Amino acid sequence: MNKRTFNHRVAIMAMSLMAATGFTACSDDDNNGGSEVEAQKVKEMSTLTEKYVNDVVYYTYDKLADASEKLYDEVEAMRNSLAAGTLTQQQIDQTCATFLEARAWWEKSEAWLYGPAENWGIDPHIDTWPLSRPGLAKFLSNNKDKDGIFRPGFDINEAIEDVSENNNEDSWLGFHGLEFVLFRDGAHRTVADFQGEESASEFAGSGVDGALELDFAWAVAGDLRDHTYRLEVNWNENAPQARKDRVQARGWSLMDEPGYYTGYALTHPASGMPYTSARGAISTILNSGCMNIAQEVADQKMGQVWRTATGQGTAEDSQDYIESPYSHKSFQDFYDNIISIKNALYGNIEQPNYDERSIMSYLHKYNPELASNLQQGLDASFDKLNVCMQGRAFVEVAYSGTAEELDNVAKAMEAINQLNEALNEADYWIQRN
């Protein structure tokens, strides 16, 4: 994410807020027929929203927090093993696998980046790219001595706070700081890598070695874990107590601003609440959630690189704007983003068929053509991204892509844009019928 992407998301959020709060009369539930049919629609919309919140959002954030917690423990174990001279490649491989698990759950949550992810800036805090290697080299070099964050015998909770608050470049935090430590050129790093000094050219003469990188990764993993706890806790008032305790220990609110649990607010629309109608809640799911990430994947995550690689870039585009370049998982990230949209529409987690209490089921009942358009958009997006995933990594395509490879990227972007159009049509129709 960069500043342009963040501002783009804010604009989409503002448009959705108008729909969610009943800004226009045609969005009010009681202005869509005033009949028994309308009452049934509102009941069904309320039921599917509850299913979405409980079985999709809550479930995903719980799994994300589980994986992030496990990642923190495994990075700590790697650090201790390196110090004891017992670090193994199997241990590194396991930590890399856990990182990818946590990463996948995060990407599969990006169809609902409204709420605490947006309001508290959690999304840019844990998922900003590209990582500044020169900046990270300077930061680590400045914090390795007796007065630095990673001084001998440092307290991990203090380090988590210091890294989170004193690091002025979010690109060093969260997933991409950890990715840099654990992966290079699409491969897991080795025991020898951690036993020596950092080999990236930007670190030459910095004195940064594998032990310092793992100190840093331990603190960053703790900060990532805490932010994933906050996501779960701010959405779900029944989140595990230990996670609530840790959120409060960081000095954070248990609730999303301005003082409500997002899951409760979405499933209890009423006057004075963030969402005032059942239709407004659906619009938030489709507009602030699904459309938001579809637009970002096509226009920003893929679009910036494609435009620069094909000579169509603007001053705001960058060829370096590549998500997950060290693990070579960019296309997987994009695929998982579309899975998040599918899960939101289906009311379940990666099932072949949608739940009877879902947006897809609702549309199939009341407007089968729109349901078909959405399904076609999902299928085409998955198909085109699968083609991309069979080839070279996105970071390689960015700098030496063939005409065929760039055309494959363009086709995936087109399919995702068509999915976004279908989402927009579905939202428009639901708000007016």
Automatic annotation (TrEMBL):
<keyword id="KW-0732">Signal</keyword>
<dbReference type="InterPro" id="IPR034982">
    <property type="entry name" value="Imelysin-like_IrpA"/>
</dbReference>
<dbReference type="InterPro" id="IPR038352">
    <property type="entry name" value="Imelysin_sf"/>
</dbReference>
<dbReference type="InterPro" id="IPR018976">
    <property type="entry name" value="Imelysin-like"/>
</dbReference>
<dbReference type="Pfam" id="PF09375">
    <property type="entry name" value="Peptidase_M75"/>
</dbReference>
<protein>
    <submittedName>
        <fullName>Imelysin</fullName>
    </submittedName>
</protein>
<feature type="signal peptide">
    <location>
        <begin position="1"/>
        <end position="19"/>
    </location>
</feature>
<feature type="domain" description="Imelysin-like">
    <location>
        <begin position="60"/>
        <end position="423"/>
    </location>
</feature>
<dbReference type="GO" id="GO:0030313">
    <property type="term" value="C:cell envelope"/>
</dbReference>
